Amino acid sequence: MQLTETQRHYWQRNLRITAILLAIWFVVTFVATFFARELSFTFFGWPFSFWVAAQGALVVYVLIIWFYARYMNRLDQEHGVAEDE
Q1: Do residues 76 and 82 lie in contact, with contact meaning Cβ atoms separated by under 8 Å?
Q2: Which of 19, 41, 59, 71 has minimal CB crowding within 10 Å?
Q3: What pTM was computed for the model?
Q4: Is position 84 within any domain?
Q5: Exposure of 3 by Cβ count < 10 A (0-12 exposed, 13-18 middle, 19+ buried)?
Q6: What SS3 state is found at 23?
């Protein structure tokens, strides 16, 4: 199956944004929580490391999902493959 230039461009942009968002996910999930132990100060009555692991990561995950959905909707419209409402 041969892909057109438009399809190839669409797929490259999709892979690029996916890789960037996965890198952000990795940093938040593993790097930030690994180094959170060294952040030993109180934040709203809780240790900051607990807040990062329990609350901050969830906020970032929701933002990643929101951004990806918004970006892909725009990309779909740009390439003429958007779903009609």
Answers
A1: yes
A2: 41
A3: 0.80
A4: no
A5: exposed
A6: helix
